[in-house]
Amino acid sequence: MISKQVSFMFAARAQQSAAITCGIIQSVRRLSTGSGSEVELIRHDGSDKGIATIAFNRPKAKNALSRSLVGDFRQALDELRSDSETRVVILRSAVPKVFCAGADLKERATMSPQQVEQFLHSMKVSFRELETLPQPTIAALDGAALGGGFELALCCDLRIAGPQAVLGLPETSLAIIPGAGGTQRLTRLIGASRAKALVFTARRFGPMPALSMGIVNDVANQESTGDSQNIGESGYLRALEWAREILPNGPIAVRMAKRAIDHAGAVDPVTGLDVEQLCYAQVIPTQDRLEGLRAFKEKRKPVYHGH
Ligand code: CAA
Fold first, then answer.
1. What stretch or stretches form a coiled coil here (predicted)?
2. What confidence score (pLDDT) does residue 234 get?
3. Which atom of ligand 1 is nearest to the CA of 151?
């Protein structure tokens, strides 16, 4: 496991992003449970302190989900789950033109049916770990997010698409079905009829249809600046803007709001209201709540510390 203190980002594109936004990266931690180091955990600093980015970096296989990558990813999630300093988590790719190509189909071809089942289980557990992170999560979808890659994004609270995003569940074209929660999470998000249309056809679609179906919350600016290399704002930069909007809000309140909202639809309405009440009870004794009231009275911006 290599841990490295750096003041700026790891890849040329990311360096450009950091320069544009004046964000400072405090540390990049390359996680490795196996042979490679395919997941980076980046903690931002300066005015972005409190934002953490998980970046997938497996260029040779377009960030396909191998056993090793999923292991590294789980390690990153483990670290963040217990990190009270992290207020917002962004998932992104360090590989141009792809977010994640889904299950590693080459590795899959070498697995026995039992190993496929085991791997699917560990993928599902990791996706659930992502979904239940206490902090809000944002998927920055630059490039292809297909199969398991799209299902991964569905576990995030928000999804922001870049101009080059290509989404889809191509599983039925491989004679399988979405097996990492896609049939359930997509259906809850957009309804059975639309989910069936996408799964039955295995169709790939871009950012604007994704926005109109409610699959993504926002699409980055598609305007080119005239530079032939520049295809517009990246989904990551737009996701960073969203993270910055969440960052100053009461961290415990945001976590409790996430927990309460996640229960809507999972429990009956009366139980849901009880859950909301229990979540509200967590914010009442906080110093942050008192700070919010003081700041309102003093006509200034509140400063929350997460206690
Ligand atoms: N698994 C393993 N390797 C993959 C991969 C995958 N899912 N996707 C791409 N690669 C590899 C390619 O085989 C290729 O390797 P070689 O150089 O050794 O030939 C390399 O990545 C580059 O791929 P392309 O040349 O295809 O790159 P591209 O930029 O033209 O296209 C892509 C990128 C759109 C992601 C395209 O590769 C693609 O469509 N990949 C397959 C996506 C897919 O069907 N995913 C669903 C998997 S099933 C699943 O996820 C269900 C589940 O069980 C959870």
1. none
2. 93
3. 54
